[in-house]
Amino acid sequence: MTGTLAVGVAAVLAALLLVTLVVLPAGRGRVPLSRLDPSVAPTPSALAGAGAAAGAAVERVLVRRGQWARWSAALEQAGMTTSLPDVVLIVAMVALAAGALGTVVGGVLLGLLLFVVTPLGARLLVGLRAKRRRAAFADQLDDSLQLLASSLRAGHSLLRALDALSQEAEEPTATEFARIVNETRVGRDLGEALDELAGRMASDDFAWVAQAIAIHREVGGNLAEVLDAVGNTIRERNALRRQVKALAAEGKLSAIVLMALPFGIGGFISLTNPGYIARFTTSLLGWGMLVVAVLLLVGGGFWLKKMVSIRF
């Protein structure tokens, strides 16, 4: 207890020293004239230089291991504007802090567990944000096509209609179409940008839209009518998907309750009658029963996930 208190006092004193030397201003002296010259780049601080060096080191490691493109694409799909090295550094610092806190509070085992769980939680958060962003893009696609067709009927060109859609649509549709407009302005082919958007959003419906626009650019025709037909098809598919989602909601809730029930009952018994639950960890038969229970739980979880995950 005394050692823990000493560590805490030392950490507080170190934080106060850091605030005194770095954060608080050194004085109210006059600003040098060199800082008023726009042609002179400001001198980076020690913390900024250390952060830049750490970010460059992280980037080199990711590029060497071939993970740079993969994780950069994951951040783009999640709609996160923070650079990949900054995300990696933030997650690493949070993991270290969580591990240190867990070690002080519950021992080395808890600290190691928190240190390992923190990066997994960050990865799960990025995947969840990307999934929600794709779902929002799919829900907005039929309205986006209707707005795009209306702009074409009004006499606008395709690029002007895409620009209007990027300004009037909701997120994430507005951001994605604004990216398409900016890419075409710097010389990228429109078909390639549309195909990349379909892949980034994992949308088969928008892949149809990209194909329809590519065919129109080759053979001509009334693109507004084509987009109306594609929009009606997508609208019917969205209605069917929402109906299936509503019918499967009860099954998903049941699956969540069934998966959480063993942990809830085990936690309740461990608090009310620790001696009863301790028998599982004091004998070989108890450990075997726990292993079998975990295997059955994992198998049942995959089974329930396949039952409520309907693809069409």
Please outline the helices and strands:
Elements: H1 2-23, H2 46-65, H3 68-78, H4 84-106, H5 108-153, H6 158-168, H7 173-185, H8 190-200, H9 204-219, H10 223-272, H11 274-277, H12 284-308
Helix pairs in contact: 2-4, 3-5, 4-5, 5-6, 5-10, 6-7, 7-8, 8-9, 9-10, 10-12
Number of helices: 12
Q: How many E-type strands? A: 0
Main beta-sheet strand count, sense and barrel state: none
Q: Report the helical percentage.
A: over 70%
Based on Cα principal axes, name the global outline: flat
Backbone structural class? mainly alpha
Mean pLDDT: 77
Note the beta-strand portion. under 5%
- Low-pLDDT parts are 22-29
Order of helices and strands: HHHHHHHHHHHH
- End-to-end Cα distance, whole Å, is 60 Å
Which radius of gyration do the C-alpha atoms yield?
28 Å
